[in-house]
Specification:
Length: 114
């Protein structure tokens, strides 16, 4: 895949172990339906602000997966995790990817849909 000798030596890897985001609160209580709309809107528009579509797709898959699968996804896609909660990431070319907390976890003041 990469050039010979381009693999980082042991201990030089830029991978962080992922962790779940800290609990957070939306500025007003929202329903699961509204949260889904916010997430869909983010993922639909995010690629237009730069970066590679493949990385955005991998980040979405990781954000929607359990923590172990998310770790495998970001590792295999070559995503460099700056913040362990995935709010700030880079690809191997140095493009920056910022993820809002609402795509990574649910707020503490989520209202269950009736």
């Amino acid at each position: 895949m990469g050039c010979a000798g381009s693999t980082p030596a042991k201990g030089e890897e830029n991978t962080k172990k992922l962790r779940k985001p800290k609990p957070w609160k939306h500025n007003q209580p929202i329903t699961r339906t509204h949260l889904k709309q916010m997430r869909d809107e983010f993922w639909d528009t995010a690629p237009h602000y730069g970066g590679q579509n493949e990385i955005w797709d991998a980040l979405r898959a990781a954000a929607e997966a359990d923590i172990n699968l998310a770790q495998a996804i970001v590792d295999s896609a070559g995503i460099i995790i700056t913040n362990a909660d995935m709010t700030l990431c880079y690809d191997e070319r140095g493009a920056k990817y910022e993820l809002p907390k609402y795509v990574l976890s649910e707020p503490t003041n989520l209202i269950r849909d009736s």
